[in-house]
Structures are given as structure tokens and as C-alpha cells.
Design a protein that fits this description.
This protein has one domain (2-184). Helices cover 73% and strands 0% of the residues. The protein has helices at 2-22, 31-57, 59-67, 75-94, 105-108, 121-150, 161-184. α1 (2-22) packs antiparallel against α2. It is elongated and about 60 Å long. Residues 110-114 have low confidence and may be disordered. Belongs to the heme-copper respiratory oxidase family. The chain crosses the membrane at residues 42-63, 83-109, 121-142, 162-184.
Length: 186
């Protein structure tokens, strides 16, 4: 349900962005609100739609079934990952309503400590929501890799393309998320 709600939010944001790009200034007169919308849309799609829904929601029952495993390697990690996902989405949603919003995409990334960065509670909420979403994705990824590698009947050459894509995506995610988190908070 939360994944569907997040997906619908992302579709609405994408539609508003496309309308604004086709006729600049007609729908949104405030550039700061537009920049906030673009930033929130990017973060929502990356951390809260693609990874948790593709891997966390759809993959939770499909991957064990395709591997012949009774369940994921760490079932309680799925629950924790899911609840962190909800908290991260709520924090990201709150950033629209605090002061002047999150701002443009470049204000989220380094240099946050520089004079051109935006220091507001909205930025703190956005950064924390990114960390919560990243932690949720890392836990889900480790769970998927553990499930795939520990299944007793695992024969790597017989994996389907979906299993390989999830496995490789999970490996890349575990390597990339800490680098992103470090870059964001430098």
C-alpha cells in the first residue's frame, strides 16, 4: 500500500514537472517550489520507489519462490527495512512544508558546509530521509544476496535473468550507498 502511494506521488510529481517544462511559468510561478519538487521527485524515485518496491515489495515473495527457498534469509530484516522505508518517505514529504523547502538538487550535495548551501530544517529532514532510505535499501540488498547465496539448491548458471539482475543491483547498491551518504554529508 505504501509502495503504491509512493509510486502515485512520484507519478503526480513527474506529471507536474512535465507540464511545467512544456510551458515554463504557467503552472508554478515560484522557482524555489519547482526546484524543491524536482529534488523531491528524484529522491523519491531513487530511494523510495525503485529499490524498495522492485526489490523489497515484489521481490520478497518472487525471489525465494524462484530460488526454491521457503523464505528470505532474514525475514525480520524485511520488516525493519519496510518500516524504515515508511519513515523515510514521511520525512521526505515533510520537507516540502518546512520554510522554503529543500531547494535545488545541487544544494543537497556537497558542499553543504559552504556559503552557498541552504541551511534549514528542511535540508536536515531531506538528508536524514536519504539516510533512512539508503539504510532500508542496504538491509534489503544484504538480505537478497544472503538468500541467493545460501539457498541449498543454488546453481548460479540456472538463475533467471531477474535473479541475476537483483543480485548484481544489490551488490552495486551495497557498494554505492555508503559512498553517496559520505558525499552528501561531507
Amino acid at each position: 500500500i505504501v509502495g503504491m502511494w509512493t509510486g502515485l506521488m512520484a507519478v503526480v510529481m513527474s506529471t507536474i514537472i512535465r507540464i511545467e517544462l512544456s510551458h515554463p511559468g504557467n503552472l508554478m510561478l515560484d522557482n524555489m517550489m519547482y526546484n524543491t519538487l524536482v529534488t523531491a521527485h528524484g529522491l523519491l524515485m531513487l530511494f523510495f520507489v525503485v529499490m524498495p518496491i522492485l526489490l523489497g515489495g515484489f521481490g520478497n515473495w518472487l525471489i525465494p519462490m524462484m530460488l526454491g527457498s521457503p523464505d528470505m534469509a532474514f525475514p525480520r530484516t524485511n520488516n525493519l527495512s519496510f518500516w524504515m522505508f515508511i519513515g523515510g518517505v514521511l520525512l521526505l514529504s515533510v520537507t516540502l512544508f518546512i520554510e522554503s523547502g529543500v531547494g535545488t538538487g545541487w544544494t543537497i550535495y556537497p558542499p553543504l558546509s559552504g556559503s552557498i548551501s541552504q541551511s534549514s530544517p528542511a535540508m536536515d529532514f531531506a538528508i536524514f530521509s536519504i539516510h533512512v532510505g539508503g539504510s532500508s535499501s542496504i538491509m534489503a540488498s544484504i538480505n537478497f544476496m544472503s538468500t541467493a547465496m545460501n539457498t541449498s539448491k543454488t546453481i548460479y548458471y540456472s538463475w533467471t535473468l531477474y535473479i541475476w539482475s537483483v543480485f548484481i543491483t544489490s551488490m552495486l547498491l551495497v557498494l554505492a550507498i555508503p559512498v553517496l551518504a559520505g558525499g552528501i554529508t561531507m
